C-alpha cells in the first residue's frame, strides 16, 4: 500500500515595521540610482549613497527574515476536508458562500487551525495576526486544498536550446 505525503506550503509572517522600512529604502535607492544617471560627471556622487542604501537594505532584510514567523501548512486529507466542509455549510441565499460551498465566515478559522503543522499556535496566537496576514494564511490553506498544483517542469537540461535549434536548421 502506498502512502501519500500531502502538499505543504509556508506562509511567512513578518514582524513589526520591517516591510515598510524595506520598501522605503527601496524607493530611496531607486531615486539615488536615477540621480546618479542624470547628474553631470563632475557633480556625480561617488556611489556612496547608493552603496549605503544597499547595505541598509540588506541589513533590514536580514533582520526581517530573522524575526519572521514561518507557518507551515498542510493540505487536509479528503475525509478531514469533507467533515470540515460539512460542519460549515453555505448560508442560505449567500451567493459568496454558495460559490465556494461553505460558510466562509465560520470556515476560515477552523480551516487555518486544522492546516497548521508548525509552529504550534493557539486560537489566541492566531487572533493576534492582522486581518491581512490571517487572510494570506487562509487563502494559502484554501489553495492547498482546492486548487490544482501545477506539475514541475521537465529537467532544465532537457529543454530545447533555441540558439542551437536555430543554428541547426
Describe the structure.
The structure is a single chain. This protein has 2 domains: 15-67; 69-146, no CATH class. Helix 1 packs antiparallel against helix 2 (48-67) and helix 5 packs across helix 7 (131-146). With 169 residues, it is mainly alpha-helical. Helix content is 57%, strand content 9%.
List the helices and strands and how they pair.
Elements: E1 8-13, H1 18-38, H2 48-67, E2 69-74, H3 78-87, H4 95-100, H5 104-115, E3 116-118, H6 123-127, H7 131-146, H8 162-168
Antiparallel strand pairs: 1-2, 2-3
Structural class: mainly alpha
Biggest sheet record: 3 strands, antiparallel
How helix-rich are the residues, as a percent range? Answer: 55-70%
Mean pLDDT: 85
Strand content: 5-15%
Taking strands numbered 1, 2, ... along the chain, how are they ordered across the largest sheet?
1-2-3
Give the domain tally. 2
The radius of gyration over CA amounts to 24 Å
Q: What is the string of helix and strand elements?
A: EHHEHHHEHHH
Number of strands: 3
Count of individual helical segments: 8
Principal-axis shape equals elongated
**Low-confidence runs (pLDDT<50, min 5 residues)?**
164-169
Report the span from N to C terminus.
50 Å
